[in-house]
Amino acid sequence: MTVLLTRSDVRRLLEIDAALGALRAGFTAERPPVDALRVRTDLPLVGSSATALLPGLIDGIPAYTVKVNAKFPGAVPALRGLLCLHSIEDGALLAVMDSAEVTAWRTGLSAALATDVLAPRGADTLGVIGAGAQAWMVVRGLAALRRHDSVVVCDLAADRARDFAAQAEALTRAPAQVVATPRQVAAAAATVVVATWAREPLLDAPDVPPGGHVTSLGADEPGKRELSAELLRRATLVVDDVPLSLRMGAVGNAGLDEEAVAATLAQVLRGEHPGRSGAGELTVYAPVGLPWQDLALAWICYEAALTDDGGTRLDFLS
């Protein structure tokens, strides 16, 4: 029997602390001896694409995932698709769930983990460039990990920025304001989260003060760039996967090579790399997204659905 989980089901079944714990465990776990694949192709509408991620594997979880997403920047939501959870023993289809909600959670909360370990310590201003679902999940994750004194937000849509700022203020209990440009965000905030569709850099090296941190989530496909090559070159740059970042992430899209990468987030979380080592150091986290992250949260949803009889049951073999 297969469990079908809608977006509202996934949202109900996931919980911030448990999801953060599952992702942290996934980053520090031994990787299975299977190469993960991320296959994508452009679609006729400018900016649209189809992507498949497989297999999501984590040592100790008796399942794997296959995810298929469609990205259409002009649509609401912009990301749509399905995540299939299969038994690792016989391939049985255990669950099918909305992929957009899982993707937002795993991307945003993985970024929150990275931001927490790389950003300067102590309460300060949190900056957000791009007031969308992924940035909101980073803010939610960070609220569970550390405190910020204030929040500053910038978005192409002023009303969306205002709504985001109001939600952030309610969540963090810190004052939040809207500014007009990405540079104003970087000038005001020690920690900056960028989550946009940009194809030209929004921030350059002089825009980010010494000792700051930037998490850039938008450079996850060929041609997408949020940070300049010089900013990446000057920073202690951490990624989630080096070959993937070279092929379709921030490093390759900026014309840089693997020498620009200081470490992976897994190496930092395992204590194999210090991450930030000085008060005046500039750090950047620029992930692409990995299939095992989908499994970490899909498994939580599946087990929770079995416990509370959530979702809809369907026998695909009948």
Verbal overview:
The protein is of the alpha/beta class. The chain contains 11 helices and 15 strands. The protein has helices spanning 7-13, 16-28, 99-118, 133-145, 158-172, 182-188, 229-234, 242-248, 250-253, 265-269, 291-308, and strands at 2-5, 37-42, 49-56, 63-71, 79-87, 93-98, 125-129, 150-154, 176-178, 191-194, 213-216, 236-239, 261-264, 283-285, 312-314. The strands form 2 sheets. It has an 8-stranded parallel beta sheet with strand order 9-8-7-10-11-14-12-13, with helices on both faces. The protein has a 7-stranded mixed beta sheet with strand order 2-3-4-5-6-1-15.
Keywords:
318 residues, alpha/beta, eight-stranded parallel β-sheet, seven-stranded mixed β-sheet, 11 helices, 15 strands, 36% helix, globular
Chart the SSEs and their pairings.
Blueprint: E1 2-5, H1 7-13, H2 16-28, E2 37-42, E3 49-56, E4 63-71, E5 79-87, E6 93-98, H3 99-118, E7 125-129, H4 133-145, E8 150-154, H5 158-172, E9 176-178, H6 182-188, E10 191-194, E11 213-216, H7 229-234, E12 236-239, H8 242-248, H9 250-253, E13 261-264, H10 265-269, E14 283-285, H11 291-308, E15 312-314
Parallel strand pairs: 1-6, 7-8, 7-10, 8-9, 10-11, 11-14, 12-13, 12-14
Antiparallel strand pairs: 1-15, 2-3, 3-4, 4-5, 5-6
Helix pairs in contact: 2-3, 2-11, 3-4, 3-11, 4-5
